[in-house]
Amino acid sequence: METKTILTDTHTHLYSEEFDEDRNEMMQRAIDNGVTRFFVPAIDSTCTQSMYDLERDYPNNVFLMMGLHPTYVKDNYLEELQHVENEMAKRKFYAIGEIGIDLYWDKTHLPQQQIAFRTQIQWAKKLKLPIVIHCREAFDEIFEILEEEKSPELFGIFHCFSGTYEQAVRAISYNMKLGIGGVVTFKNGKIDQFLSQIDLKHIVLETDSPYLAPIPYRGKRNESSFLINVVDKLSQIYGLSANEIARVTTDNSKVIFGI
Residue 115, exposed/middle/buried by CB under 10 A (0-12, 13-18, 19+)? Predict the structure, then answer.
C-alpha cells in the first residue's frame, strides 16, 4: 500500500491575522490534503510570539525561521536586527528568512535594506543555515549582494520566484532552490513557460498564504491546503504524477532545511 504523500509548504504566514477566525480549521484542511510540513517565515519582532504559539500548538508540523523582512526595514532596523540575533542565540531555527530587498513599496530605505540583507546572510553562513529570499523589483540588487557573499555556506530558497529563465539559472547558481507557488497558475505568471527547462531538483513548493492564492482562488485569501493546486500545475508542466511532484519537492525541502 502506498503511504500518503507528504506535501511541504516551504513558506506560509500561518500567524497572519487573516487566519485568526479559523486557524485550526485552516490547518486541518491543509493536513487533510497531505500538507503536513509548514515552514513559517518571520517578518519583524511583532510576529515572534505568534510564531512561538503556533509551534507550541503544532509541534510536529510547524518549523520556524527568524529574520527581518525587507519591507519592515525602517529607521529602527538595527533594533530589529538585534532582536533577530537575540532570538537566534536562544533557540533553533530552520532558516533565516524572509530576508532580501523590496523596491516595489519603498525605495527610500534601500541602503538599510542592503545592510540588513547582507548582515543576515553573514549570520546564516556562520550558523550554516539556509536563507529565504524575498525579492520584489530588485533582482539586480539582490544578485549583486549574492555575488559578493557566495560561498559553499550560502544556500537557501528564492521565495516566490517570478523572474526570467536566465534569472532562475543565476539564482540556482548561488545554491538556491526556487520557491514556486500560486504565480505558476496565473495566465500572466510567465514562469510556467520555462519551468520545464529547470530540473525539478531545484524546485520547492510554497503558498505564501494568505497572499498569492492560485487559480481558481486568485484574489481570495490563500491557505496552505491550496498547495495541491500548485502541485496539479507542476504535474502538467513536468509530465509527472502529483505524487512524484510531492515526493521530489518534499525531498528538496529536506535538503534545504535539514528536516
Answer: middle
Helix (H, G, I), strand (E, B) or coil at 234: helix
Q: Which residues contact 106 (CB under 8 A, 6 or more apart)?
A: 71
Which of these, 32, 35, 39, 33, lies nearest to 54 by C-alpha position? 39
Q: Give the integer Cα–Cα distance in Å for 87 and 57.
A: 19
Q: Alpha-carbon distance 149 to 151, whole Å? A: 6
In tens, the pLDDT along 148-197 reads 999 999 999 999 999 999 999 999 999 999 999 999 999 888 999 999 99
**Main-chain phi, psi angles of 9, to 5 degrees:** -90, 105
- Do residues 70 and 100 touch, judged by C-beta distance below 8 A? yes
| Number of neighbouring beta carbons within 10 Å of residue 149 | 17
C-alpha torsion sign, points 254, 147, 40, 227: negative
Residue 205 φ then ψ, to 5°: -100, 150
Placement of cell 512561538 in the chain: 52
- What is the rounded CA–CA span in Å between residue 98 and residue 35? 21
Q: How far is CA 130 from CA 50, 99, 125, 149, in A?
A: 22, 11, 8, 13
- How many angstroms separate the CA atoms of 14 and 67, rounded? 16
Residue 12 to residues 37, 62, 110, 198: CA-CA distances in angstroms?
10, 10, 25, 24
Residue with cell 500572466: 188
* Residue range 42-55, pLDDT digits in tens: 999 999 999 999 99
In the structure grid, which three cell numbers stand for residue 110, read together?
Answer: 534601500
